[in-house]
Amino acid sequence: METASPCLHTTVAACQDRAKEASARLAKALGFVPDGKLLWSPSPTSRSALALVGHCILGNRMFARVLRGEALPQLSTPEQGEAMSRQFEATLTERADAERQLEASCAEVVAALGTMTAERFATSPDSPFGAFPMAFWMNLPALHQDSHTAQLEYLQTIWGDLAHHR
Description:
- This protein is 63% helix and 0% strand.
- By secondary structure, it is mainly α.
- It has a single domain (6-158), classed as dinb family like domain (Four Helix Bundle (Hemerythrin (Met), subunit A)).
- Helix 2 (49-67) runs antiparallel to helix 6.
- The chain is globular and about 50 Å long.
- It starts with 5 loop residues before the first helix and ends in an 8-residue tail after the last helix.
């Protein structure tokens, strides 16, 4: 197995930092959600604040598998993945549990990134949505969490919280 080059080490460190920053931003946004709004959503198909965090937790766990070189669960359709996500999200009913699991899932991503080799970096792992270069997978945890943090911030505006919680 090849060892990682200095350039790959720099890339890994940047991806680790971004994943931690994105996770911290999501946790901070969750901290501003009133207790009575944690499970609220604007429609039956929309995600609540806790469901958005749960979706990111599950995503982080799946991304860590890919980063370690493990296969994702075999799904016939992307809809099966959505159903799996919704099932996990429904288990989160407490803020503290969501915060703990988010922190643990981010640590799992950071650790998985730390195992990156030049050999694995050169691959394009498969997913239910197609094959993507490992560089994409390395950046996906941060991008995914940032995207869902923005959704959580939008939910806050729906119930009248217009403050910028940065």
